[in-house]
Design brief:
161 residues; alpha+beta; Cyclic Phosphodiesterase, Chain: A; 10 strands
Length: 161
Amino acid sequence: MEKEALELYVAHYFGDIPAEGKQLDAWPNHLTLVKPFRLMGGLVLQDVVATVSSVGEAHAPLVLNPIGIEDMGPYDNESAFKIERTEALHKLHLDLVHAIEGLGISFTDRRWILGDYNPHSTIKGDFELRSNVVCDSMSLGAWSMGQRFVAKTVRLGDGTI
C-alpha cells in the first residue's frame, strides 16, 4: 500500500493558534494564504517549514479588513468574509507561492493563486471578522491519513506594524 502524501497549506488563524503538533478535528477560522499542496518527491516537512519561516520573517505584519460577505465553495453554498487584497497581503501570498514552487512543488490546480488569489475566511459558527485585524503570524497546516495538525507557526517580521 502506498503511503498517503502529506497535504499542506499556509494560513493565518483568527483567535487562538493551535499548538504545533496538536491533532485537530477541524481547521479553526482562518485566512488561507496559500492553498493546499502536496509534499512529494523526496522533500521533507522541514524543507517547507524552513522556506515558509524565511518568507514570514521577511514580511511585516499587516492589517486585514473584511469587505463583504460572499457565497463560495463548489456550489456557492458556503458563506465567507471576503478580505481586501491589499498590496502587502498579495505580496506575502506571491512570495510564499514562489518560494514553495522553488522547492520543486507544483500546484496541479492553479486556480486561486498568484493573480487569481481571492482572500477570504469561511464563516463557521458565530465567527465574525472585524475590521483592522492584525495578521502577525502564519501557520503551516498539515494533514495525512485523516489527521490534521499545525506543523509550524511563524511570526511575521519583528511583530510590529
